[in-house]
Amino acid sequence: MMIFDRHARGFTLLEMLVVLLIAGMALALTSQALSQYKRAYERVSASTQGGREYQLAERWFRESVSGLYPAGKPGETGTTPMPNTVASPEDALAFRGDAHGFSGLTLLPVLAGQGIPTFQKWTIAPNRFGNGMLMLDEEGKALTLPFPDSGQLVLGYLDANGNPHTQWPPAQQSPWRQLPAAITLALGGSNAVIVAPITGPQQPRVIPYEPEPF
């Protein structure tokens, strides 16, 4: 025989509404917390990715600049060429630079094999967010190195005494070494400056007993 308890009863409509209200508030708070966590994670992830891109671009730029090598014969480089003159093959490979880019031979190319003299050209170009990027061209191979949150990029050149110049060779008619002592990259967004020294010779070397070409 089954015995029913007269006092046993289910939830009333008001109690169900209260339970549903509490559950809805908990769900809303959980959803909001998850949304805030997602936004924070995306910001941290973007900052971390930007930092990695910056470090990689800086390392490749420094290494490439450190391997710059002078082209031509001693005594034939280091002066500004006269306008409307036909450059010799050595002059065409000689280092040239201004605030927006530079070109020359390097023994530490980014895209080619290390130790192989490679002619490369670096050019500054802005992206759609107004930050500067370095465009690299190595004998037909192209690469873009972004500098996140860098603002405008400006190149500069230091001589052996540490004096800055906006172009190389400088505009003065004094005989300058073919390569500067270092190349600077100013980041307008953070007012930081990357200084990349050139570790090799700044002038073409004299090789004793080298046979003269016919």
Q: What does this molecule look like?
A:
With about 210 residues, this protein is of the alpha+beta class. It has a domain at about 50-80 and about 90-195. It is built from two helices and ten strands. It has helices at about 15-65, 90-95; strands at about 70, 95-100, 100-105, 120-125, 130-140, 140-145, 155-160, 165, 180-185, 190-195. The strands form two sheets. Strands 1, 2, 3, 4, 5 and 6 form a six-stranded antiparallel β-sheet that branches. Strands 8-7-9-10 form a four-stranded antiparallel β-sheet, covered by helices on one side. The chain is elongated.
Gist?
With 214 residues, this protein is of the alpha+beta class. The chain has a domain at 48-80 and 88-197. The chain contains 2 helices and 10 strands.
Question: Overall 3D geometry?
Answer: elongated
Q: Low-confidence parts lasting 5 or more residues at pLDDT below 50?
A: 74-87
Number of helices: 2
Element order: H for helix, E for strand: HEHEEEEEEEEE
Mean pLDDT: 77
Number of strands: 10
β-sheet strand percentage: 15-25%
Largest sheet: 6 strands, antiparallel
What portion of residues is helical? 25-40%
Derived structural class: alpha+beta
How many angstroms does the end-to-end distance come to? 124 Å
Integer-rounded radius of gyration: 31 Å
